[in-house]
Every structure is written in structure tokens, then in C-alpha cells.
Amino acid sequence: MMDTRELMAKVRTIEIKSRGLSRNVFAGQYHSAFRGRGMSFAEVRDYQPGDDVRDIDWNVTARFGHPYVKVFEEERELTVVLLIDVSGSLFFGTQRQSKHDQMVELAATLALSAIQNGDKIGAIFFTDKIEKYIPPKKGRKHALLLIRELLTTEGSSSGTDLNVALEFLFNVVRRRSTAFLISDFVQGNSFEKNLQMVADRHDLIAIQSYDRMAEQLPDVGLLQLYDAESGEHIMVDTHSKAVRRQHAENWEHRQERLKTMFNKAKTDFVSISTADDYVTALQELFDRRK
Fold first, then answer.
1. Contacts for 248-254 with beta carbons within 8 Å, 24 or more apart?
2. What is the side-by-side strand order in the sheet with 203-210?
3. What is the β-pairing status of strands 233-237 and 39-46?
4. What's the confidence (pLDDT) of residue 13?
5. pLDDT for 20-79, tens place per residue?
6. Of 91, 112, 126, 141, whose CA is between 20 and 30 Å from 186?
7. CA 63, 65, 71: angle at the middle one, nearest 5?
């Protein structure tokens, strides 16, 4: 556990990096990718040829004796909710950072992008139960609180249940929001029903963080693997081509199931290796949504 000085230094480091990305890299892209709730009345102006007659404000027109039309603008303010997996499997990493570290930076970048755009940001931390809920608010102070919680919130349980997080979001956040479900998606039980339920109400985006070893085992002979969620130790002969091939096929099948499920729910899905730069992946996600 970090002491207060170490924690504040880490918060500051994450804030500086994330703020730079949200300002310099994602400026404009976030605004274009995540639009507001709809259109609201802004003002009236003189009717001009080509204006839709359905927009004529008949009360103002009658008062001033010539036609005026209503002008509408997009309601920009969003409520953004981060659903953050803090289960045991997230602290595994064989590359430049663990899945947890990557998810902290990624979530902090999204949080600061939301704050800089004038949106509210909240977070739901979960394992196989809800660990912590931070209601959506605006402001830099709130964003720093959220970053601190990203760094310090630990799961009281090692398991994962995405259904718990999705049901909590559906029951607690009633107003349509933009929600980012951030996990490694290693759980075995189905969450398709709750995924569809949430996607029908909210603008849901799924972001997967994964380690390359989940995709491809290295040829290093006998390797003892530890499942942080089940607590099991498994000895694997990675020198066996059949074992490595089966491992890769299992990964591909699991990924295809996820893609099919998210496509069916009309939910954007992006998968990011801890060996890769999440900035590029987020840019591609934002570009797809324009």
C-alpha cells in the first residue's frame, strides 16, 4: 500500500500524462465521438429562404409581423460512467505494464476528457460484487478524486461478475449516459442478457485490456501458471506445439464470442494489449464513432 506522499505523487503523474493526452491528442475527437442527449431550443431568428416551415415560431411571428424560426442546438452535457474491473486477474502482466496499470491510465484519460468537455464523470468499481460507487460530478477536483480511487481501490474478492456491474448501472443510473465497461473479460459465465439490457438504455462501450500471454504462450518449457481469480496453480508444458496451438485457439474462440455478443448488442468493442499503446486504440475508437 502506498503512503500518502507516494500516492499524491502518483496521482499527479497520472494527471499530467492523462491531461496532456485529453487536451493535445483527443481534443475534438471526444466531443465528436460522444454527443449529447438531443436538441434543445436556443433562440429565434428571422426566417430565411430554405428554412423548415415546421421551425417557425408562430407566437413571435404574430407579435412582430414577419416570420421567425426557432434555432435548436445540441445538448452537449453528458453523464459518463466508468465501470472498472478490479478483480485479481487485472494485476497480471508480462509486458511493459499490468492490465490494471493500463486500465488506470486509460480510465484517467477518459475521465479528464469528460471533465474538460464539461461532462459529469462517475465510476463503478467491481469484482463479483460492487466494491465502490462514485456518483457522477463535474470539475477537476472530482476528477482527481476519481484518479486517486483508480490507484487505490482494491477488490475485496478476487473473482469477476460482469452481471453485477451491469445490473448496478441499470438500477442506479436511470438517465441515459455514456458508459465505458473496462475489463479483461476473462469470466466464464454469460452476461449477454444484462449487456443487452444496459445497451438499450445507455451508450455502452466495452474496452478490453489483455496480456499477450493470454493470446500466445511462449515456448519456455514447463511453466507454472497461477489463476488469481480461482487461486489454482496449473503446470503447462509450453514446449508442446499442441498445447500452444490449443491455447491460441481457445483465445480466438473466446474473442469471437465477445465480438459477436457486443455486435448483437450494438456496443462498440476495442481490445488493447498491454504491450501496445492504448492512445492509438482510443483514437481509432473515437474515429469510428464520428
1. 248/215, 248/216, 248/217, 251/214, 251/215, 251/216
2. 130-137, 120-126, 79-85, 178-183, 203-210, 268-273
3. unpaired
4. 83
5. 787 766 666 776 777 655 555 556 888 888 888 888 989 888 988 889 888 765 556 789
6. 112
7. 70
Provide the β-strand partners of residue 258: none
Report the alpha-carbon distance of residue 179 to residue 197 in Å, rounded.
13
Sign of the dihedral defined by the CA atoms of residues 190, 194, 197, 198, in that order: negative
Q: How far is CA 100 from CA 93, 152, 185, 273, in A?
A: 9, 11, 13, 12
DSSP codes of every residue in 236-247: EETT-HHHHHHH
Classify 109 as helix, strand or coil: helix
Scored b (16 or more CB within 10 A) or e, 188-212 reads: eeebeebbbebbeebbbbbbbbbbe
Question: Using CA of residue 254, residue 259, residue 192, residue 134, what is the dihedral sign?
Answer: positive
Question: Which residue, among 275, 271, 276, 277, has the nearest Cα to 256 in the 3D structure?
Answer: 271
Give the H/E segment covering residue 146. helix 140-152
Distance CA 243, CA 230 (A): 21
Rounded-to-5 percentages of helix, strand, coil across the chain: 45, 25, 30
Q: Which residue has the cell 478476487?
A: 158
- What predicted TM-score, i.e. pTM, was given to this entire model? 0.80
Q: Which of 178, 2, 209 is nearest to 91 (CA)?
A: 209
